[in-house]
Fold this sequence. Notes:
Blueprint: E1 12-16, E2 27-32, E3 36-41, E4 47-51, E5 58-62, H1 64-74, H2 76-80, H3 87-101, E6 105-106, H4 111-118, H5 123-134, E7 138-139, H6 142-158, H7 171-174, E8 175-176, H8 196-221, H9 228-258, H10 273-287, H11 292-303, H12 312-331, H13 341-351, E9 357-359, H14 362-375, E10 381-383, H15 388-400, H16 404-414
Parallel strand pairs: 5-6, 5-9, 9-10
Antiparallel strand pairs: 1-2, 2-3, 3-4, 7-8
Amino acid sequence: MEFMFNPKDFINSPYGDCPFCKDKNSFGVLMIHTNSYTRRCKTCMKSQSYRLPNIRKTIIYLDQFVISNMMKVINPKWKDKGIVTQSFWREMFEKLDILSKYQLIICPDSITHFDESVVSSNYKQLKRMYELLSYGITFEEFSTLERFITCEYARKWVRNEVIENDSLLDLKSVIRGDFNKWQDRFIISVDLGNNDLIIDEIETHNERCRDDITNLFEAWRSSDNFNFNEHYLYELDQSGKMIVKIYMEYLQQCDRIFKGDTSVNPEILMGNNISILVHSVKSSLVSEGIQSENSLEKTFEFFLSDHYKKLPPLRISSLMWTALARRAAVVKQKRIPKGSIFNDIKTISNIFSYCDAIFIDKECASLLEEVKSEIGYNDTRIFSMNTLDEFFLYLDNIKENMSKEHENQVYEVYGKDRIKPYTEMYL
């Protein structure tokens, strides 16, 4: 089939009169950039660019179950199956999508969205939903975020700088992509193709998590004289110790390979998240003047220090795990959480401090509310199904606070007729 490319196809509404050839309603929008946009005439093909004001979008993180339910409520496939989804999911989607089109919010996706979507038979539909609201803006992988902030804290530690609990990374290091840009009309989505190996790994991990949370919860329930502060300090303390232990085991396995032990999988030499983290901290300390021959010992010293225990992701996850342990040990909760609690807490602990709001499941929201005062510095709004009305009010307030100038600018660039929810996405 012959493909005919016409550059005029990329010129879109809203149209105006061309300032060059004076042709009526021919001067459309060609491209939208970070802080500017370009118009081109369909008649004379001359272009002109215009500046756009800087904007600051509200960052909202949506749990996977939110993505899933919004996908189902506007997808005819689910209606045909007779699956009834509550109407408030449609209302939520419409509010979020309109605010997104007004360039007022961004809902970054994360590796958790991918992991929990790719194992589903509805992977492509779920991916399309979370990418519609994220515009491809995504949180860095959590192991990368943990490495970034750990290295930052290690450098401050070796310089004897005071480390506060609210010492965070710059948002540009946390979120991949320009989240405060005026978004183009097009979303470029890439799929790696065959995901079978990834799916097998995720499903194996999920099964292990189900076993682990069952064992943990039963151990907590059988404990006596539970003390919140003591357990919290234990959680903090164990993190650094486990990193040192796992890394030492990694070195021992590498040594066995180098000595010709064929029983050890040579892929171990490629490293893992822990070895990469230790090597990164080690390099950071060397860059600060620590001698190479002393750098590993100094790295271990950092991981066992009180400075390491101040890392926000570590503090948040330790507090949430401690709150969960208290429910088992003190409240004697019978229901064992799902294995996904591991992914939930890891996700929340890494992204919470960088969001204006998060909408998560009821269990994680209540755990986070229990310990939010202990986190102290964070103003992030926490929403769940228990606070759905408050979330809708929060979204309504964002729109109500939009200035008339911003609204007019949006209409000038995108057109008033385009500011409507994309409920036909799956038709």
